[in-house]
Write a structure and sequence with these properties.
By secondary structure, the chain is mostly helical. It has six helices and no strands. The longest helix has 30 residues. It is elongated.
Length: 137
Amino acid sequence: MNTTVRNVILFIAAILIGSMVNMGIITLGPSIIPYPEGVDLSTPEAYNNSISLLQPIHFIIPFLAHAFGTLVGASILGKFAGSHWKQLCLGIGVFFLIGGIVAVTMIKAPMWFSAMDLLLAYIPMGYFGWKFTGARN
């Protein structure tokens, strides 16, 4: 298979699998760290109305979901791409970072969480996905 075609297919697969990891963690989150009574996460508006009920511990799961989703996607590319490993892994970080920026504009979250999430969960995890797999440059 042509290397470019392979890389494009893997990039799309990495987005899908990384997104599934993200959503899986988000879905399991309340069973690990239950939300307080009255928290409604069904829509961005309901979430924004419930934000004052959340404690810092409730932001651990979303951060881990964003970080691990990106890390898994980047690791897939680092392991299986045919070339341009570093660029593809960082590209996954950028792709998920754009999603994070969109989420920050839609959902009210504490500034410390938004900053930590945008600075640590995406580009660094793309980089680590590349480094952990031992992929070449």
